[in-house]
Amino acid sequence: MKPFNAKSYPALRENHEELKTYSLRRLFEEDTLRANHFSVELDGMYFDYSKNHLSAKTLKLLDDLANECGLPKAIQHLFSGEHVNNTENRPALHTSLRHRGEKLTDQQQAAIDTQKQMRRYVDRIHANEWLGYTNKPISTVVNIGIGGSDLGPRMVTQALSGSKIWAGEVLFVANIDGADISDTLRDLDPETTLFITASKSFTTAETLTNTLTAKQWLIQAGCKETELAHHFIAITTNIDAAKAIGVDEDNILPLWDWVGGRYSLWSAIGLPIAISTGMDNFEDLLAGANMMDEHYKNADLSENMPAIAAFCSFWYSQFWKSQSHAVLPYAQRLCRLPAYLQQLDMESLGKSITKEGETIDYHTGNIIWGTEGSNGQHSFHQLLHQGTHVIPADFILINQPMSPLTEQHMQLQACGISQSQALLQGKTLKDAMKELESLGLEQKEIERLAPHKIVAGNKPSNTIILDSLSPKNLGALLAFYEHKVHALSVLLDINPFDQWGVELGKQLAKPIAESLKQKKVDSKWDSSTRTLIEKLI
Ligand code: F6P
Questions:
Q1: Do 121 and 8 belong to one domain?
Q2: H helices within 380-427, ranges in order?
Q3: Strands of 367-369's sheet, edge to edge?
């Protein structure tokens, strides 16, 4: 059902009119325990959504709307393996990858069997028993993949670098730009380098091309064709294609069509994470995600973290004209989280057709962006504070320090908290004038400068605090975002599990690559495309 057909929609519109006239400051003044009333806590993760333009009534209406849109049933269907991806006629069972329990479904069993296989690979590498073509142990692993076969494992490997247990190095290559792989390989030793070709489909041009480049690099270094198998692992649903390019059958880890690319870091696609941080930590990551799964499945919507986060996003995009959402992790090791969430959220919700195929005439997926704090404060935060857009932001803080420099950690936390406070309360004209007066400026100068110093405040944000950047807490955080996207997709009435828009570019790239190669332009193409090609040949 399109959301505006829900009975609660007109009441939400009225509620918006009412709340528009209320400042966030006033909401906090009227309810001194607002932070308690608008927050949820789970083991290791605290979610404060009090700095939002929401009243208890708003939440009740959003809850009603979610029920009318069938969110509780959609959650059940997600977990029970219904074909929720209706354009590809299959389930989206990434939650099975992290399930634990007695009675297992086929998918859950397959996931556990694969984890055992991953553990064997990791143990061999860690024990220096995985040998290259000259019988030297592997000391570098290069993951070749793109999109979901890169962003998740790359981001988590970095995020968990504090729990790294392997002395070797794990690197990532994604881009078709040859500079990516050649810069990566430049200082590596072919004798001790192992490649993982990570591709669900095993048809992705970037990944296959980079894999061939890696093969050539090994051969040029003296590795015989028959010895290449020592240097390649493949992770894919397309086992025949992996074998066809020469990957040994024993070095192939399976993937399944019921795991979407952007939901696949929990599968064997997470092998680089497990190599870097160890299989036990990888399993803790899964356990944290499983905890969030159970919460999403069982908690009442009014206390359901991912559902509430989705309610907030829906509320702002439908009623407050927001079009983007900032992700601001105050943790250097989470610097790749915004890029990871871009794929998760924008590839899932960037749609303009309902699940049943009707054209959408309302706002769907947001533009997700951000960077790690405190760096962003010296860049785009100016626009958050004094710009004209409504940009809800997620601040992510970590309680335990991530380095021995505890004093710096305190400063980092202070930066994060003060930014969310500044967005909430801003700076009034009166305060700005007082500040200028204290500098001893003349009245005329004070009046000239003061308007520039006003910060409107009243800007919404959520704050998430993780007890520590442990594998378990990180797993919970990522599953939180996955389920937020799912809940939002139900409210927006779209299928979050396909990505047909990406296909068009892939289709068009082939003839253009051919045209560049042949130095011939197709006269049927538009004049811009023709001219651009002519300039490049
Ligand atoms: O870019 C589209 C996409 O299909 C993503 O959804 C996916 O994660 C990525 O390409 C890589 O696909 P594969 O793992 O099949 O190589």
A1: no
A2: 381-386, 406-425
A3: 39-42, 45-48, 461-466, 393-398, 324-329, 367-369
Structure-token pair, residue 10: 């007109």
pLDDT tens for 78-97 read 999 999 999 999 999 999 99
Whether 207 is in the pocket of ligand 1, judged by its Cβ within 6 Å, is yes
Does residue 452 form part of some domain?
Answer: no
Asked if residue 307 has pLDDT above 90, the reply is: yes
- Token pair listed for 209: 């091309």
- pLDDT of the residue at 4: 87
Q: Is the CB of 199 under 6 A from ligand 1?
A: yes
Same-domain pairing of 245 and 338: no
Residue 96 corresponds to which tokens in the numbers above?
Answer: 């099975």
Q: 85 - beta bridge partners?
A: 90
Say whether both 121 and 268 belong to one domain.
yes
- Work out the mean pLDDT of the chain and round it to a whole number: 97
pTM for the structure as a whole:
0.97
pLDDT, position 102:
87
Q: Which residues contact 449 (CB under 8 A, 6 or more apart)?
A: 432, 436, 441
135 and 234 housed in the same domain: yes
Distance CA(135)–CA(157), nearest Å, equals 27
- Report residue 198 as tokens: 């990570």
Backbone angles phi, psi at 85, to 5 degrees: -90, 85
| 283, 347, 372, 482: the active-site residue | 347
Q: Is the distance from the beta carbon of residue 201 to the nearest atom of ligand 1 less than 6 Å? A: yes
Partners of 198 in the β-ladder: 235
253-276 per-position pLDDT tens digit = 999 999 999 999 999 999 999 999
Considering the domain architecture, whether residues 233 and 377 belong to the same structural domain is answered as no
Dist. CA 261 → ligand 1 center (Å): 6
Mutate to test the pocket of ligand 1, among 146, 175, 344, 497 (most ligand atoms within 8 A of CB): 146
Same-domain status, 269 and 406: no
Quick check: CB of 242 below 6 Å from ligand 1?
no
Question: Residue 399's domain spans which residues?
Answer: 3-68+299-425+460-492
User: Are 370 and 338 within 8 A, CB to CB?
Assistant: yes
Q: Is residue 290 part of a domain?
A: no
Give the pairing of strands 367-369 and 140-144.
Answer: unpaired
Q: What is the pLDDT of residues 365-387, one digit of tens each?
A: 999 999 999 999 999 999 999 99
532 lies in some domain: yes
What's the gap in Å between 174 CA and the centre of ligand 1?
Answer: 11
In this prediction, residues 195-224 reach a mean pLDDT of 98
What is the number of domains present in the chain? Answer: 3
